[in-house]
Amino acid sequence: MENRDSYLKSERAQEWREKLRKSKNNKERTLQERVKMPEADPQLRIQSYVEVNSGLSAEQAQKEASRCIDCPNPTCITGCPVEINIPKFIKRIEEGEFLEAAKVLKETSSLPAVCGRVCPQEKQCEANCFYTQKLKKEPVAIGYLERFAADYERESGKISVPEIQEKNGIKVACIGSGPAGLTFAGEMAKKGYDVTVFEALHEIGGVLKYGIPEFRLPNEIVDVEIEGLKKMGVKFETNFIVGKTAPIEDLKEEGFKAFFAGSGAGLPRFMNIPGENYIGILSSNEYLTRINLMHAADKNTDTPVVSGKNVVVVGGGNTAMDSVRTAKRLGADRAIIVYRRSMEEMPARVEEIEHAKEEGVEFMTLSNPIEYFANEKGQVNKVKIQKMELGEPDASGRRRPVPVEGAEEIIDVDTVVVAVGVSPNPIVPDSLPELEVTSWGTIKVEEDTLQSSIPEMYAGGDIVRGGATVILAMGDGRKAAQSMDVYLKNK
Amino acid sequence: MFKIVDKEFFSENVVRLSIEAPRIAKARRAGHFVIVKIGEKGERFPLTIAGADREKGTITLVVQKVGVSSRKLAALEVGEYITDLVGPLGQATHIENKGTILACGGGVGVAPLLPIVEAYKKAGNRVITVIAARSKDLIILEDQIKQFSDELIVMTDDGSYGKKGLVTEGMEEAIAREKIDEAMIIGPAVMMKFAALTTKKYNIPTLASLNTIMVDGTGMCGACRITVGGKTKFVCVDGPEFDAHQVDFDEMLLRLNGYKDLEKKADSDYLKSSEEKGR
Ligand SMILES: Cc1cc2nc3c(=O)[nH]c(=O)nc-3n(C[C@H](O)[C@H](O)[C@H](O)COP(=O)(O)OP(=O)(O)OC[C@H]3O[C@@H](n4cnc5c(N)ncnc54)[C@H](O)[C@@H]3O)c2cc1C
Ligand code: FES
């Protein structure tokens, strides 16, 4: 930590930073209003999958960057799971050195264009910004600026190709191609390893492709990252389920010396309430997969999707918001979030909740479905909703929702999307009886190294944490690469 | 991409394909299936692996043309490629020498029944197979099934071939005659429902191999879920075989109908467009 502090200090002391700090006084900086992200019009955007946030202009970005006062003790960094040197990249933007800003991001983050779009900044860096903490004002728009720098670099066509150490010929395997796997692969390729990524689906990208919709994270952005990895020599094998298509043993025989499991938490949870298997009730994974991975909304594809006029989405996370906003785009008249706690507890990114409201999504909070009804064809047509209130705090510190005796409501529905959480993918653990897992089914790892109970097997991302975030998955991919490198070198 | 190396028509609508997939050929066992996707815009759909040749590194699929995707697959020629193929998926059939097996296949269910009949036979069982369809032209794989059955009973609804009657009548015939140790049923949900009721009457342990709608085939979506013994199960990972006496076939029937209208429309659109192309 001390190292890091002195590193940050010396960076901050550099001439260009000092000059920039002196170019404007803090009063002037703090009087400026936070930039507004330009957005597609809500009425128009719900008729397409166009990205909602259109990104800052260079001018807007530089102006916003000038709000940052380049604190001597940058608390924002402590809020970032991968400790991006936030003031440094922001000051590069203020200076107009956008490519340099992107380089700063890439010192610690492999997917800045993705994280700039999907990180819960309001709970991380921006929550710890001097503006939020001390001035009680709106924080510097760190997320927007991150996105700006990353997009600028990509669109400039001048993507900096990372330095690759001399190839060492050691084969390592990565299981899964979500953010954890992609990051791991990139880091190992840089260190000179011969990396193959095995992916069960026919597409690379994990949740970034099959889960998060185009209107929030265009596929093109993920594809650029994948292309970059290919240029670095990373190999990809799609349609390959490690543990089914071939056991780990076979891969070892083929020369793979170590493994990273980034196999995610892809299993949908249901609520086990009466009627949940009626037609028209599906998991958010199924709903989003049909649209995002199989492109069911495109008439030229073979995959169908049934989405009704009255859609209820159960849950309050990002997955729920993505589903309910997808329902709007598929033509729902009413798209309703049913969530058992209140607005404040909703785990989704604040921006997504705001966007959902603009798009006409209704919110039924303190409400929990308890039973579904169907017509004679088994098609769901009604849902019984139990009203809730908040009681004593539970283990997580959040107040536990408890049913309000006798307060029930029945509403008409024709599609229900269940987005109440996910469980770890059991395929890798099932295929390796000696691999230790928790009672939740997540893979047990050493906290510092991410090494599992099998020495040559590392793991990270949602398969270790349960449903978490992109940035944490990415951070894990990096950490695992570092410790696997040490392990293989000492072997 | 997975290359088709051999192709043989069993009848106008049923085709056998051998496909280069060395890893799957090595890993698969009877009862496993694969998910297939044809072309960039194709859907993902499951097919039972009918057989495999480890040496050659190929697997066999038996496909009956029933909808857009199976037609597209059946239209591929030797030398052409299947875009995506993943597996082996599901739990393998627990095959052992049980004594006498009653294997029942209805309609499209006969194709996935074939490898199971073969495996039972090779494990030393006496195998009595009943295959059934609406009429003569819908009876498929008769010769292939016969090869691995000690006895074959063919039933048609209209009596145009074999005996006239439903699959259950053929089953009753065998059950009345000899002791059956286990039954295996594969076919349309209605057929399986009544076949299961039949064996239940006689307390014959029975497995049903279920063909629900699937998307990923790896447990990620829940499209394939059904109720077995009051509990929700995912056919792609917990199955495809279940205790037939515990399966809620009525619910499964309803769920299968969920996309029927869309599928029918897609199929007729596809047929129209391929006729226009002169195929
Ligand atoms: C709809 C949705 C919206 C979300 N929104 C946000 C957001 O806004 N912000 C945020 O930070 N997080 C969000 N998340 C969470 C975030 O996407 C995940 O935390 C993150 O993707 C986890 O990354 P991962 O690499 O661990 O796993 P995943 O992205 O799940 O990738 C795992 C991959 O491994 C593959 N795989 C599994 N088993 C095998 C095997 N045996 N062999 C080969 N391949 C295998 C899977 O097919 C999958 O592609 C969202 C999640 C969802 C579902
Ligand atoms: S097909 Fe998706 S879970 Fe079974």
Automatic annotation (TrEMBL), chain A:
Record key words, sorted: Oxidoreductase
MF terms (GO), sorted A to Z: glutamate synthase (NADPH) activity; iron-sulfur cluster binding
Residue span, FAD/NAD(P)-binding domain: 171-477
Record keyword Chloroplast present: no
Domain Dihydroprymidine dehydrogenase, chain residue ranges per copy: 46-157
Family matches, as InterPro entries: DPD_II, FAD/NAD-bd_sf, FAD/NAD-binding_dom, Helical_ferredxn, SudA-like
Region of interest called Disordered, as start-end residue ranges on this chain: 1-31
Biased composition (Basic and acidic residues): 1-18
Top-level taxon of origin: Bacteria
EC number assigned by the record: 1.4.1.13
NCBIfam families xref list: gltA (TIGR01316)
Protein name as catalogued: NADPH-dependent glutamate synthase
Gene that encodes it: gltA
Automatic annotation (TrEMBL), chain B:
Protein name: Sulfide/dihydroorotate dehydrogenase-like FAD/NAD-binding protein
Binding positions for [2Fe-2S] cluster per the UniProt entry: C221, C224, C236
InterPro entries reported in the protein's UniProt record: Cbr1-like_FAD-bd_dom, Cyt_c3_hydrogenase_gsu, Dihydroorotate_DH_Fe-S-bd, FAD-bd_FR_type, FNR_nucleotide-bd, OxRdtase_FAD/NAD-bd, PyrK_electron_transfer, Riboflavin_synthase-like_b-brl
Keywords recorded for this protein, A-Z: 2Fe-2S, FAD, Flavoprotein, Iron, Iron-sulfur, Metal-binding
Pfam families, per the entry: DHODB_Fe-S_bind, FAD_binding_6, NAD_binding_1
GO biological process, alphabetically ordered: pyrimidine nucleotide biosynthetic process
Domain FAD-binding FR-type: 1-95
Organism of provenance: Plebeiibacterium marinum
Organism domain of life: Bacteria
GO terms, molecular function: 2 iron, 2 sulfur cluster binding; flavin adenine dinucleotide binding; metal ion binding; oxidoreductase activity
Amino acids binding FAD: V62, V63, Q64
PANTHER family from the UniProt entry: DIHYDROOROTATE DEHYDROGENASE B (NAD(+)), ELECTRON TRANSFER SUBUNIT, DIHYDROOROTATE DEHYDROGENASE B (NAD(+)), ELECTRON TRANSFER SUBUNIT-RELATED
